[in-house]
Design a protein that fits this description.
With 278 residues, the protein is an alpha+beta fold. The chain has one domain. The protein is built from four helices and twelve strands. Strands 4, 5, 6, 7, 8, 9, 10 and 11 form an eight-stranded antiparallel sheet that branches. Strands 1-12 form a two-stranded parallel sheet. A two-stranded antiparallel ribbon has the order 2-3. A hairpin with a 2-residue loop joins strand 10 and strand 11.
Length: 278
């Protein structure tokens, strides 16, 4: 006689209908975003820094295959946005930027390219100018502890043409690039509004390229700024963002990522020209 089979009964769990939240069919996304505007965002200056853009030199770590920082294809004269694994052509294309904020500072370094120490708003009073008796062009400001300090001019810019949206970066110009900074500022100072008033820093788009230079100490690259065009009615979003960044830097809500100074040490005074000579 065949054994009776025992049928396993599986209880059916009712499936709930998908809600409007899960499907998004009846949710006003814009309303929710407005309801939680600013949620979780820090406005503390310590949490809001702008990364650097570097002009790569022959000894920049990202150009050296033996270095862990190496980026494939990176060469002297190219432009590197810190934190990215890409490099941009500097000599032929350059980058289109809108300058947003300008500041001067003095950067303190350990001896013999030992690394970044501090950023000073002004030249430290205890710094003393040291001139090499065998080479009058070798002039450095030196601290009592042996560290050196060098002038740097910082440009906060919006890069317009390398990402989907304009993004802010900082370009620090020091050594012989102090002249490049001065030339760029002179170009900006020639800009006028339609009513004949001096234009604001962020009124124009500029193209920044890199140009090779040489002297008896070696070869290096410098920045070179060229005029592109003034902002127009189609650039309102760019102008608004540039003004926002300008105000944020001026008010202290944004600041330079100081540690980024040490990320590309080889670009700092690559050809060892003192700022007083350029």
């Amino acid at each position: 006689m065949a054994k009776p089979t025992t049928k396993k009964v599986v209880a059916k769990v009712p499936v709930k209908a998908a809600t409007a939240v899960s499907t998004g069919s009846n949710v006003d996304v814009d309303m929710l975003l407005e309801q939680y505007a600013g949620a979780g965002v820090s406005t503390d200056a310590a949490d809001n820094t702008i990364p650097f853009i570097y002009l790569l030199q022959s000894l920049s770590p990202v150009t050296l295959k033996q270095k862990p920082e190496y980026i494939k294809g990176a060469e002297a004269g190219m432009i590197w946005p810190r934190g990215e694994r890409v490099v941009w052509d500097g000599e032929d294309e350059g980058i289109n930027v809108v300058p947003c904020h300008f500041a001067k500072c003095w950067v303190e370094w350990l001896p013999n390219r030992g690394g970044f120490v501090a950023r000073h708003n002004d030249k430290p009073k205890e710094a003393e100018l040291k001139v090499n008796p065998n080479d009058k062009k070798d002039r450095r400001w030196v601290m009592p502890n042996g560290n050196s300090v060098s002038e740097s001019k910082e440009w906060a810019v919006l890069v317009l043409d390398k990402q989907d949206n304009p993004l802010p970066y900082v370009i620090a110009m020091s050594g012989s690039n102090l002249k490049a900074s001065n030339d760029w500022m002179a170009l900006i100072n020639r800009k006028m509004t339609k009513k004949g008033n001096p234009a604001g820093l962020f009124a124009n788009i500029y193209n920044l390229k890199t140009v090779p230079r040489s002297n008896d100490k070696g070869d290096w690259y410098m920045w070179f700024a060229e005029d592109v065009r003034p902002l127009d009615d189609g650039d309102v979003h760019i102008l608004q963002e540039a003004i926002r960044i300008h105000k944020a830097f001026k008010g202290g809500d944004l600041k330079v990522a100081e540690a980024d100074y040490s990320g590309n040490l080889a670009s700092e005074e690559e050809e060892d020209t003192d700022s007083s000579l350029v």
